[in-house]
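Example record for the data management plan.
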Amino acid sequence: MTQEIQQLLRDNSRPAFATLLRLLKDFDLAEEALQESSLAALEQWPERGIPANPRAWLISCGRYKLIDSLRRRSHFEQCLLPQLTELERHSATFDPWDDPEIEDDRLRLIFVCCHPALSREAQLALTLREVCGLTTEQIARAFLVKAPTIAQRIVRAKNKIRDANIPYEVPPLAQLGARLEAVLQIIYLVFNEGYGASSGDELLCTQLTTEAIRLARWLCALLPQASGEAMGLLGLMLLQDSRSHARVDAAGDIILLEAQQRSLWNREQITEGLDWTSKALIADVAGYYGLQAAIAAVHAEAADYKETDWRQIAGLYSVLLARFPSPVVALNHAVAVAMADGPTSAMRLIEPLLASGELMDYHLAYAVRADLLRRLQRFAEAAEDYRAALRLCQQASERRFLQARLQECEKKC
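Corresponding structural encoding:
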């Protein structure tokens, strides 16, 4: 039962936190309430049984425990009295087991974290931490920056929300468009952390990918005339997620695209993903997510790996790179060029990219060049890059794959 309880706490803690924040309007108090209720759950659920609605239980328990704590502390900290009074007043009518607003609380929280008063970096870091429960270290790896930098961003963002009295609400329809870009970036980062974890033993975290897809569906439903980018992101995630069951074997080791059993791809998700992608491309000029969804659609529509239209994919990446230049997009473009025109052509793109230093902390950059060098039979140089990738990689499945390729190259040196 202990494992079941721990899983339930993982599944329900962030949704419960979102509702507690709505009630308390203070990040620190909401975290304190959640921590107290989680500890109580670990103590009580093994003996009394798991409640029918774990999320509502955590909210109710956390709220009452926080009221008790504030009552004790208010004797010494008079500044807590307004919060205590408001919480006691609201507790008389609030019922977490029958609250129609609970399901929208995480969406509210995302828009609070994406408020324009916050910097873009703070928006992303705060949402990944508070909405999705990622650790500071995981967020740092997603941003390719150091963990203390992320921690400082989160603290400053919370202070800004408090000091500016940023409302806990989904903005009116007229303001949604301006706030949508940051929300889409956040959802995609959440999906990416679930689709290819930055650290740990498991490559996939279906909880995060499912949550990201769910949030994207909400956004499309919220907007009567949903933007092409929102639909493009939903299409992209569905198409990528459709391959999840084919990406790792029973031992948790990575299966490359060329070796995946396409019968394991989720055809229902592919059909839906292609539909959203088509809607996105019709609704608007192809944007960042729409172009990526179009690339994913080329993969999804290929009967097998050999029939993949790599030249079309390389062309789409060229457009993406021209409109949204970034070192990671440039790296993906080089991979597509390698498949379309061979590793020599791709090396001409990779060398200056790595020489710029922008990807010096990104293990996949070294892994890509190592693979190109391996295909060119430059095994000693490939081994050196595989070692560099291993020094940076934190994910167990990826490390096993890189180690195997390193050993293969070392034997041929």
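Summary line stored alongside the record: Residues 199 and 395 are 4 Å apart (CA to CA).
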